Automatic annotation (TrEMBL):
Enzyme Commission numbers on file: 4.2.1.136, 5.1.99.6
A molecular function (GO) term: ATP binding
Protein name in UniProt: Bifunctional NAD(P)H-hydrate repair enzyme
Keywords, in A-Z order: ATP-binding, Isomerase, Lyase, Metal-binding, Multifunctional enzyme, NAD, NADP, Nucleotide-binding, Potassium
InterPro entries (UniProt xref): Carbohydrate_kinase_pred_CS, CARKD, Nnr, Ribokinase-like, YjeF_N_dom, YjeF_N_dom_sf
One example of a Gene Ontology biological process annotation: metabolite repair
Pfam families, sorted: Carb_kinase, YjeF_N
Species of origin: Halocynthiibacter styelae
Cofactor binding notes: Binds 1 potassium ion per subunit.
Source organism superkingdom: Bacteria
Record-linked HAMAP family: NADHX_dehydratase, NADHX_epimerase
Domain YjeF C-terminal, residue spans: 243-524
C-alpha cells in the first residue's frame, strides 16, 4: 500500500473491519503475529534450516519483549508461533498482566500454557548474548509519552542483537516520527531496529522525521484489511499517499504531433553578476524536464556573464519590475521561477509583486521566500497557481508559529507532524507548499498532501549539496509550463529529483541532476511504465 496512515486512521480501519463482522480483533492479532514471523524468515532465511531436528545444532533462541497493550499482544502471538517452529523463546512483560486489553490477555494466557512470562526486572543485559533475535513488542501506535528509563536501558543493551520491532520501534511516535526517548549522542547513527514489521500500511512515523532513520527497514504485512479500505478512506478522508510523485512522473511522455509551445514557456529570473549560477541550473532543469522553451531573465549587469554560459536556454534583459511587466505581455510565458540567488533588495521585491499580480504559475524559492516572509503585502498576493519551496529555515521565516509547533519538544503523542505543518502552511498561503528534506512533504491549499520520502532504499544523502534546491525549483517550473497542476508539478518534480540523485549516486553535484533526467525519463517511458526506476 502506498498510503500513509495515522494511528487513529489505523484504529478506525481495524474497528470497521471488526464491526463488519468479517474478522475479530483476535484474528487480526494472530495475522499480525504471523506476519512478523513471516518477515523474520524472509529477512534471515538461514533460520529456515531445520534447527532443533539436528541434535548437533543448538535450537534457535529469541527473546520477546511484550508491552502492556495490543502491541504486546502481537508479541505473545510471535512467541507462540516461534515456539511452534522449534525456537527457545523467553518472554518478558512490561506491566501488569491483569491490565492487558482483552485480545492481548487471551494471547498472554495461550503463551502461559507453553512457557513462563518473566517480569521486567529480570530483563537484564547479560541475557542478550544468548539470543540471536530480540522481538520488541512494547508499544506500537499506542505510544503516548516518553519511554521510561527501565525500558530505555533494556533497549540500549539490545543494540548489538538482531532486532525486530513490531509495528514501530517502541520509542517512535507513529504520527510524527518523533523519538520519545533520550537517544545517546554517540549512537545517533545507529539504526534502532534491523527490521520493523508493520501492518496493512505505513504509518506516518515510518517516513517522517527521525523515524525513518531508526526503523531499520520497514516491511508491511497485510492482515486482510484491504476489503474495507474504501469505506474507511471515505470516512477518514485524510489518507496521504507517498511516492505519488512517481505517478506524476509517468505522465511525462510528449504527444508526437505537439510543437514546442504546446509544452509551455518558462521564465526564470536570475540574480546579478556572480549570482547567476543558481538560476542557470534551474533553467537547465526546466528545459530537461520538458518545458518547450526556457528563458532566463537577467539584469543588464549580468547579461554578458549569462550569455557566455547558455545555449538552448534563451536570454532576456529584465532590468526592473516594469521590464518584467513588458515581457509578460507575451501570454505564452506560462510559468515563472523567482528566488534562486535572486537578491533581497527592493528591485527583487517588486519583481515578485509583478510576477504574482500576473496570475501566472509561479515557483517561489530561496530569496523570494525570504522577501515574502518580510512583506505581508507580498504574502497576501500568493494565489493557487503558486508553489512555495521552503527548506526548514525558510519555512520558519514564513510560518514562525507553525514551525514552533512542529519544533516543540516531543513528549507525547499524538502530536503535530510535518504533514500537519505543511497542510496548515499551504492553507494559510493559499497555494501549494513543498517543505523540503529527506521527508519532503507537499500539500496544496485544500489539504491534499503527499510525502516524497527519500528514505530506506531511496536514501540519497548526496542530494544535500549546494544548488540542488535550485534544480528542484527548475523542475517544478518546467512541469508547470508543461501544464501540470501546481501540486502535481511539485510531486512529480520532487520524485524525479530523488530519482536523478539515485541514478547518479555519490559524488553528485547539483549540475549533474538535470543531466540524469534523460535516463530517468527513458526508463519511465519504457514498456514497464517506470517500474524499473
Ligand atoms: N487494534 C487491533 O485490532 C490490532 C492492533 N494491533 C497492534 O496493536 C497495537 C496498538 O495497540 P494499543 O492501542 O493497545 O497500543 P500499544 O501500542 O500496545 O500501547 C498502549 C499501551 O502502552 C502504554 N503506554 C503508552 N506509552 C507508554 C509509555 N511511554 N510508557 C509506559 N506505557 C506506555 C499505554 O498505557 P496508558 O497510556 O493506557 O496508561 C497502553 O497500556 C498496534 O501497534 C499493533 O501492534 C495488531 O494486533 C493488529 C490488530
Ligand atoms: N539528506 C537528504 N536526503 C534527501 N534529500 C535531501 C537531503 N538533504 C537535502 N535534500 C534535498 O536537497 C534539496 C536541497 O535544497 P536547498 O536546501 O534549497 O538547497 P540549495 O539552497 O543549496 O539549493 C531539497 O530538495 C531537499 O529535499
Ligand atoms: K513495538
Amino acid at each position: 500500500m502506498n498510503e500513509l496512515l495515522t494511528a487513529a486512521q489505523m484504529r478506525a480501519i481495524e474497528q470497521a473491519a471488526i464491526d463488519s463482522g468479517a474478522v475479530t480483533g483476535l484474528e487480526l492479532m494472530e495475522r499480525a503475529g504471523a506476519g512478523v514471523v513471516e518477515a523474520i524468515y524472509e529477512e534471515w532465511p538461514a533460520f529456515s534450516k531445520p534447527d532443533g531436528e539436528n541434535e548437533q545444532k543448538p535450537r534457535l533462541r529469541a527473546v520477546v519483549l511484550c508491552g502492556p497493550g495490543n502491541n504486546g499482544g502481537d508479541g505473545f502471538v510471535v512467541a507462540r508461533l516461534l515456539h511452534q517452529r522449534g525456537w527457545v523463546v523467553e518472554v518478558f512483560l512490561y506491566g501488569d498482566a491483569d491490565k492487558l486489553p482483552p485480545d492481548a490477555r487471551v494471547n498472554y494466557e495461550k503463551w502461559c500454557e507453553i512457557g513462563e512470562v518473566l517480569p521486567w526486572e529480570k530483563c537484564t543485559s547479560d541475557r542478550w548474548g544468548r539470543h540471536p533475535l530480540v522481538i520488541e513488542a512494547l508499544f506500537g501506535t499506542g505510544l503516548t509519552r516518553e519511554v521510561p528509563d527501565d525500558i530505555r536501558n533494556v533497549l540500549l543493551a539490545t543494540l548489538n542483537c538482531r532486532r525486530v520491532a513490531v509495528d514501530l520501534p517502541c520509542f517512535i511516535n507513529s504520527d510524527t516520527g518523533a523519538v520519545l526517548m533520550e537517544w545517546p549522542q554517540n549512537l545517533s547513527g545507529v539504526s534502532a531496529g534491523h527490521v520493523t514489521v508493520t501492518f496493512h500500511s505505513h504509518k506516518h512515523g515510518h517516513l517522517l522525521g527521525a523515524g525513518a532513520a531508526l526503523c531499520g527497514q520497514v516491511v508491511v504485512k497485510s492482515i486482510g484489511l484491504e476489503f474495507c479500505y474504501e469505506a474507511i478512506g471515505a470516512t477518514t478522508a485524510e489518507v496521504f499517499p507517498y511516492l505519488i510523485g512517481k505517478l506524476q512522473g509517468q505522465r511525462l511522455s510528449k504527444i508526437p504531433s505537439a510543437h514546442k509551445f504546446t509544452h509551455g514557456h518558462a521564465l526564470i529570473l536570475s540574480g546579478g553578476p556572480a549570482q547567476t549560477g543558481a538560476a542557470r541550473m534551474a533553467a537547465r532543469g526546466a528545459l530537461r524536464i520538458g518545458a518547450g522553451l526556457v528563458t532566463l531573465g537577467v539584469p543588464p549587469t549580468a547579461q554578458q556573464e549569462v550569455a557566455a554560459q547558455v545555449t538552448a536556454v534563451m536570454l532576456k534583459r529584465i532590468a526592473d519590475a516594469d521590464a518584467l511587466s513588458d515581457v509578460l505581455e507575451d501570454k505564452r510565458i506560462n510559468a515563472l521561477c523567482l528566488g534562486p540567488a535572486l537578491g533581497l533588495g527592493e528591485r527583487e521585491a517588486n519583481l515578485i509583486r509583478v510576477a504574482l499580480e500576473s496570475g501566472r504559475n509561479c515557483v517561489l524559492d530561496a530569496d523570494a521566500l525570504t522577501l515574502i516572509a518580510r512583506d505581508k503585502d507580498l504574502f497576501e498576493k500568493l494565489h493557487p497557481d503558486c508553489v512555495l519551496t521552503p527548506h526548514g529555515g525558510e519555512f520558519a521565516r514564513l510560518f514562525p508559529d507553525i514551525a514552533a509547533k512542529l519544533d516543540a519538544p516531543a513528549t507525547k503523542g499524538p502530536a503535530y507532524s510535518k504533514i500537519d505543518a505543511t497542510r496548515e502552511a499551504a492553507k494559510r498561503a493559499g497555494c501549494t507548499v513543498l517543505f523540503k528534506g529527506p521527508d519532503t512533504v507537499i500539500s496544496d491549499q485544500t489539504g491534499v498532501a503527499s510525502v516524497n520520502a527519500a528514505v530506506y532504499d531511496r536514501t540519497v544523502p548526496w542530494l544535500a549539496t549546494a544548488g540542488s534546491g535550485d534544480v528542484l525549483a527548475g523542475f517544478i517550473t518546467g512541469l508547470l509550463a508543461r501544464g501540470f497542476s501546481p501540486v502535481h508539478a511539485a510531486e512529480g518534480a520532487a520524485w524525479l529529483h530523488v530519482e536523478c540523485a539515485r541514478h547518479f549516486g555519490p559524488g553528485l553535484i547539483a549540475e549533474d541532476l538535470p543531466e540524469q533526467l534523460p535516463a530517468v525519463l527513458q526508463s519511465l517511458s519504457g514498456s514497464d511504465q517506470g517500474n524499473a526506476v
